Amino acid sequence: MAIVSPSILSADFGKLGADCRTVLDAGAQMLHYDVMDGHFVPNISFGVPVLKSLHKTLPDAFYDVHLMISHPLQYAEPFIKAGATLYNFHLECEDDIQQTLDAVKALGCKTGLTIKPGTAPEALAPYLDQLDLVLVMSVEPGFGGQKFMPSALDKLRWLKAEREKRGLHYLLEVDGGVDDTTAPLCVKAGADVLVAGSAVFGKDDRTAAVRRLAAL
Ligand code: DX5
Ligand code: ZN
Predict the structure, then answer these.
(1) At 47, is the secondary structure helix, strand, or coil?
(2) pLDDT tens profile 124-169
(3) Residues 6+ away with beta carbon under 8 Å from 196
(4) 46: Cβ–Cβ under 8 A, 6 or more apart, which residues?
(5) Which of 4, 47, 94, 146 has a Cα at 20 to 30 A from 41?
(6) Counting ligands in written order, which one lies closest to the CA of residue 41?
(7) Global pTM value
(8) Would you call 132 a catalytic residue per the annotation?
(9) Residue 43 in 3-state DSSP?
(10) Where in the chain are the domains?
């Protein structure tokens, strides 16, 4: 069984609470919350206040917060106070990685690191023993609805082997172009958590979409 983390970037923001409730009721174990700053990526999404409202409406959900921002250190505290369960930032950001991980841990939040398609998984090696989750991007971050890049599969395989070799416990997550065709390949390559935006919120029957992915 895979963990499904629907990306709410593809939800209807006019009824965000209801959209999130639907996918949680369908069995999604996380909500993937994509934060974009218009600098690290060429797009702007939503920030702390929206997470705060969502958390108020759905206090028991697991908020898988994916920070596509240049400076995750200064935003760790506000996002974690707003309800982030996992603070998942990019290895390619401009802040000091260790300092940011330390800040997240000190705030009592789970830690995640993400790599873009151009980054080798070996670059994560110094941090792997401190992480609750590693996210492999299978598209260039910034937009939903892009085509899956199969180069992510080798990275998942490497990270899975490394986890085993070192006796570590991080979850492996994949994000971008994950749908009914590509998700089985990701699970086979080692993904534990499937992020899906269009493949869930773009469907008429979102409950069935979540269930299909969760059954993998
Ligand atoms: C892309 C975001 C993704 C995105 C995925 O920058 O990080 O989470 O919403 O959308 P789909 O599943 O449509 O590729
Ligand atoms: Zn994402």
Answers:
(1) coil
(2) 999 999 999 999 999 999 999 999 999 999 999 999 999 999 999 9
(3) 4, 5, 6, 7, 178, 179, 183, 209, 213
(4) 13, 33, 35
(5) 4
(6) 1
(7) 0.98
(8) no
(9) coil
(10) 3-214
Q: Which atom of ligand 1 is nearest to the CA of 137?
A: 7
- pLDDT per residue over 45-73, tens digit each? 999 999 999 999 999 999 999 999 999 99
User: Which of these, 88, 129, 90, lies nearest to 110 by C-alpha position?
Assistant: 88
* Spacing, Cα 165 to ligand 1 middle (Å): 30
* DSSP-assigned states of every residue in 50-119: HHHHHHHHSTTS-EEEEEESS-HHHHHHHHHHHT-SEEEEETTSSS-HHHHHHHHHHTT-EEEEEE-TTS
Task: State the distance between the two ends of the chain, measured CA to CA, in whole angstroms.
Answer: 5
Domain 3-214 has CATH 3.20.20.70: yes
Q: What phi, psi does 118 have (nearest 5°)?
A: -85, 0
Which one of 64, 95, 175, 179 is the catalytic residue?
175
The stretch 174-180 carries a mean pLDDT of 98
Tell me which residues have their CB closer than 6 angstroms to ligand 1. Answer: 7, 9-10, 32, 34, 66, 139, 141-146, 175-178, 195-199
Distance 176 CA to ligand 1 centre (A): 5
